[in-house]
């Protein structure tokens, strides 16, 4: 677990960008309902959604970077979404990975970790985030990508967004 290096890296990034005289960067910890969050059918939550969070001074239509730590990602079909409209949540919740990945709200997949904790970096395309009312989704799927039955059980903690500010 190397969160200290992560924080030092983030601070260095902030210093570098601010000293370059361009737009700034900020980072934000994304709230989870527990410090270490279990997602998967054993946990009773195959599709987890965070509570709404703000990104103060976000420069809209710029890319961002999502960083998180994960454990027990064994299959290749767990993924992250951002800001699915309420009317589409049910569709994504039941979607096979191959369908979800073509959604415009698909942010990226999680890489397999095995039993160890691993830091993951997910590039977020421009236009997905907004200054208020953001929701991040964490979705697990079966070893063939389906949404029902024995989906992968994973653990997630320490989720941060690094984003451009105005
Ligand atoms: Ca697992």
Low-confidence stretches: none
CATH classification class: Mainly Beta
What is the CA-CA span between the terminal residues? 32 Å
If classified by CATH, what would the architecture be? Sandwich
**Helices and strands: which structural class?**
alpha+beta
Instruction: Return the average pLDDT rounded to an integer.
Output: 91
Structural notes for this entry:
The chain has helices spanning 3-19, 86-93, 97-100, and strands at 24-29, 37-39, 47-49, 64-71, 79-82, 106-109, 118-124, 136-139, 154-165. Strands 1, 2, 4, 7 and 9 form a five-stranded antiparallel sheet that branches. With 166 residues, the protein is α+β, with helices and mostly antiparallel strands. The protein has one domain: Jelly Rolls (Sandwich). Helix content is 17%, strand content 31%. It is globular. Bound molecules: calcium ion. Calcium ion binds next to loops. Calcium ion (CA) is lined by residues 72, 74, 152-154.
Give descriptors for this structure.
alpha+beta; binds calcium ion; Jelly Rolls; 166 residues; globular
Task: Put the structure in a nutshell.
The chain has helices at residues 3-19, 86-93, 97-100, and strands spanning 24-29, 37-39, 47-49, 64-71, 79-82, 106-109, 118-124, 136-139, 154-165.
How would you summarize the topology of this molecule?
Layout: H1 3-19, E1 24-29, E2 37-39, E3 47-49, E4 64-71, E5 79-82, H2 86-93, H3 97-100, E6 106-109, E7 118-124, E8 136-139, E9 154-165
Antiparallel strand pairs: 1-9, 2-9, 3-8, 4-7, 4-9, 5-6, 5-8
The protein binds calcium ion (CA).
Calcium ion binds at residues 72, 74, 152-154.
């Amino acid at each position: 677990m190397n969160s200290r290096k992560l924080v030092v890296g983030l601070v260095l990034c902030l210093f570098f960008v601010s000293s370059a005289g361009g737009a700034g960067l900020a980072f934000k910890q994304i709230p989870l309902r527990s410090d270490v969050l279990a997602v998967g059918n054993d946990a009773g939550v195959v599709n987890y959604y965070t509570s709404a969070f703000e990104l103060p001074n976000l420069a809209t239509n710029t890319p961002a970077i999502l960083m998180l730590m994960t454990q027990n990602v064994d299959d290749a079909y767990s993924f992250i979404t951002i800001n699915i409209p309420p009317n589409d949540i049910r569709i994504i919740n039941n979607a096979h990975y191959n369908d979800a990945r073509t959604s415009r709200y698909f942010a990226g997949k999680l890489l397999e970790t095995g039993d160890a904790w691993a830091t993951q970096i997910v590039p977020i395309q421009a236009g997905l985030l907004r200054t208020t009312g953001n929701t991040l989704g964490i979705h697990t799927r079966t070893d063939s990508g389906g949404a029902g039955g024995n989906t992968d059980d994973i653990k997630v903690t320490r989720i941060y967004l690094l984003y451009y500010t105005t």
